[in-house]
Amino acid sequence: MATSSRTSVALPETFSDGDIVLWLRKFELCSTANDWKDTDMLKRLPTLLSGKAFAVFERLAAEAKEDYKTLTKALTAAFGGDTTGKHLAMMAFRSRTRKPDEDIQVFAYNLEALLRRAMPKIENGDRDVLLQQQFIEGVPTELKRELLQRPSMSYEEMVAVAQQLDLVSQISSHQTGSQVNLASASDNLQTTTRDQPLVAQLMENVETLTRKVSELSVSVANVNATSARNSTRGRRGPCYQCGKTRVGAHEQKCLVDTGATVSLISRELISGPLKPCSLKARGIGGEELQVLGMKELELSIGTLTISHQFMVVGMRNTCILGADFLKSGRMVVDIANSKLTWPSGEVALVIETTAPT
């Protein structure tokens, strides 16, 4: 009996851990090239999982494996699709810089992928502001200086200009006995961007861009308030107050800190016995904090009342709502609108520039 065969388009490498959104994109491109239907994709996807990814797949409920879209949604959630994963992606985005010899287009794509994981529903305008700011922060000083002279460019225009400026720089570095002035060479690229504004207008636009990024970067800019106050390095960053909060019978100023793994509270703010705690906590400078025990407390924020386990520490007037509290309350830090939201409500986030005392 005659049979027909068809050579499949090469598939992506097996996936164990990392950016599953990017891997699924490659898998779906291969599936389209092979004319696979959802049923075919559902059968083939598990065969390309290994290590942690295969273990996650095996532990999924049976109903999650009956439909391709349901399966990919479950896998995405398991690999950073939850609130904690989004915060981690945003932290990676804000610290991402261009690697040595990394192509400009590759650097830009990696920034876009991280931001997409951190803020999948961000509006295009806010997206471009964040991408522009981090792109400029992540490139070498000379290229950064050139890009800051063109504040009216869109993000895509900035990437295109940076690619050409980088090429000019590479050519000049290989020339013998002559130097290419990057600033002069870049003047020939004006056809790819708009006319340069006056210096005063340029500085005003840069300040506006910086202010917008500051407003959008709430969960990334904050640091562990308790750790920073004790840090031997003396480094501090802004934390964010989440409005009027009641801890037990008392109103207390609480700070949201997505960089804190557990939620902390000062012994002086609570009464009653504590549960023993063998866990250790360290500050941003590596110093060990004084952990006194654990205490379950009722905390009210806006219309939400929730019971949560706090680590009690020997510090003054401190109440930190960490990533564990945000996750248990199904809370999301809305960077664009400076809000802390949950399914049934929200409160405003206010920047806190001084340490709690």
From TrEMBL:
Keywords: Hydrolase. Gene3D superfamilies: Acid Proteases. The keyword GTP-binding does not apply. The keyword Nucleotide-binding does not apply. It comes from the Eukaryota. One of its GO terms (biological process) is proteolysis. Residues 252-286 form the Peptidase A2 domain. GO terms for molecular function: aspartic-type endopeptidase activity. This is Retrovirus-related Pol poly from transposon. It comes from Paramuricea clavata.
